User: Which sequence fits this backbone?
């Protein structure tokens, strides 16, 4: 079940705080017509938001999905929240695709990262 | 690949802000001996931290894993960070289980939730 674009499997890096993270946790319904297309469109659209930093997504098959979007500041996040096409997608999500969801909007105060030394040159995972 | 306890599939709810979210995104190595056991132990241990609110976890098979832990305040998060058994697990994670990870510690300023009206009585997903 790969709804999301197969970008390289690398988590979004630790940016210099402060920045914002929008944590969106979902349980989906059986009704997924149009979800993949809309989701791909949203992933493209958000890149046009000035201050957008990146997105992490994980989906347990048959379980919870978590999408975390990162933004430089609150203004960038507000702009994304108010995007008309995004709002239409959210509305359809509530009508069809989501059993339940929670959104936590948070200001990152501290961040750190780790990468194994032996693969510091780049990802080798096939 | 179900490393995590099979709790009911319900995302952690929207608490009254402010509270803290620790977003931990990982890519794992091929070396996963002991991971499941340690992870289950950590999921139990964190429940003893006063101010712990809950945890969401999603794992894309062969891809990224995201764990978001929620805490009432920064003190609770610090206590979890400094737990000796947790620190030992983190150290082993860097030595064996994680290809790379990022940690974003953030203060939640706004939150909201949605549950489909027709299943408001409780989850029916099998």
Assistant:
């Amino acid at each position: 079940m790969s709804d999301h674009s197969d970008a390289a499997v690398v988590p979004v890096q630790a940016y210099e705080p402060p920045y914002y993270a929008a944590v969106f946790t979902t349980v989906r319904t059986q009704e997924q017509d149009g979800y993949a297309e809309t989701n791909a469109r949203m992933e493209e659209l958000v890149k046009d938001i000035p201050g957008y930093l990146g997105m992490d997504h994980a989906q347990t098959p048959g379980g919870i999905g978590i999408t975390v979007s990162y933004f430089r500041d609150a203004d960038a996040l507000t702009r994304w929240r108010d995007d008309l096409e995004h709002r239409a997608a959210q509305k359809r999500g509530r009508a069809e695709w989501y059993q339940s969801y929670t959104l936590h909007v948070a200001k990152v105060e501290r961040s750190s990262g780790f990468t194994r030394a032996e693969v510091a040159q780049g990802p080798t995972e096939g």
Notes: Chain B touches chain A through 49 residues (CB under 8 Å). The radius of gyration of chain B is 15 Å.
